Amino acid sequence: MSALGLVEVAGWSPSMVVLDALEKTARVRLLQVELNDLAGAVMKISGPLADVRAAVDAGKSVADLMRVRCVTSVIPRPE
């Protein structure tokens, strides 16, 4: 794993739309989806750093278009 991407989205339906964008943007692997207290989800993805950044940026853009709260983070080379 070269990088870890975290995307937290408020709302279950918007989370699935963001997940679709993450997967279609770059070659990333979905590690886990956790339900959060906001009735949404936290998605964890891995892959090459550039791909993870591109996917996370795309997910954030889609969430912004839907006007839902979205928090993102990219951790390069987690140990």
Average pLDDT score: 93
Secondary structure tally, helices: 2
Sum up the overall morphology in one term.
Answer: globular
Element order: H for helix, E for strand: EHEEHE
Low-confidence parts: none
Distance between the amino and carboxyl termini: 9 Å
Largest sheet geometry: 4 strands, antiparallel
Radius of gyration: 11 Å
**Strand fraction band?**
35-45%
Which structural class should the secondary elements be placed in? alpha+beta
> Helical content, roughly?
40-55%
* Number of DSSP strand runs: 4
The side-by-side strand order for the widest beta sheet comes to 2-3-1-4
What does this molecule look like?
With 79 residues, the chain is an alpha+beta fold. Helix content is 41%, strand content 35%. It is built from two helices and four strands. It has a four-stranded antiparallel beta sheet. A hairpin with a 5-residue loop joins strand 2 and strand 3. Helix 1 runs antiparallel to helix 2. The protein is globular. The chain starts with a strand and ends with a strand.
Characterize this entry briefly.
The chain has helices at 12-25, 49-66, and strands at 3-9, 29-35, 41-47, 70-76.
Based on the model shown, name its key terms.
single chain, 79 residues, alpha+beta, 4-stranded antiparallel beta sheet, 2 helices, 41% helix
Layout of helices and strands, plus pairs?
Layout: E1 3-9, H1 12-25, E2 29-35, E3 41-47, H2 49-66, E4 70-76
Antiparallel strand pairs: 1-3, 1-4, 2-3
Helix pairs in contact: 1-2
